[in-house]
Specification:
Layout: H1 2-19, H2 22-87, H3 92-146
Helix pairs in contact: 2-3
């Protein structure tokens, strides 16, 4: 039985050597070169997607920073105006009313700002991930195209 197995192995090795000829070598080399080119192109496109993703993230952070800066400036100016109004009130009750109104409005504005910031982060995240998602989808398609 061992002799039969050896004969089968030797036959397979002989057939493999016979299949190796200049034509099959050329075909294999062309497939290899095509694979290297495909891989290189994919890597180039992947790096472009990473750069696009980083650019989208930077723009999103810039937009968020500008929004938060404007909100902070506006809040500070309103706080100063309220402090002036409260300090020039004619009675303690008027001062308390001014501060109560300001506190209520400030809470509403802060909640609105939190919602706005959350929406901006969601938008930024979508724009940041989108180029990478496209590349990932292309990678999955490439891998599946090589499956037998």
């Amino acid at each position: 039985m061992a002799a039969t197995k050896k004969t089968v192995q030797e036959t397979n090795a002989f057939e493999s050597m016979m299949a190796f000829n200049p034509e099959s070598y050329k075909e294999g080399s062309e497939k290899f070169a095509e694979g290297v080119t495909t891989f290189t192109d994919f890597q180039k496109n992947y790096l472009e997607a990473v750069m696009a993703s980083a650019g989208a993230f930077a723009k999103g952070v810039e937009k968020l920073t500008a929004e938060q800066t404007a909100f902070a400036k506006s809040s500070f100016e309103e706080g100063v105006a309220i402090a002036k109004a409260a300090s020039s009130a004619k009675s303690l009750q008027e001062s308390v009313d001014i501060n109560s109104t300001y506190a209520r409005e400030a809470i509403e504005k802060n909640l609105g700002q939190a919602t706005k910031v959350a929406d901006l982060w969601i938008e930024t995240t979508k724009q940041t991930v989108e180029p990478l998602t496209v590349r990932y989808s292309e990678l999955v398609e490439k891998i599946q195209s090589y499956r037998p």
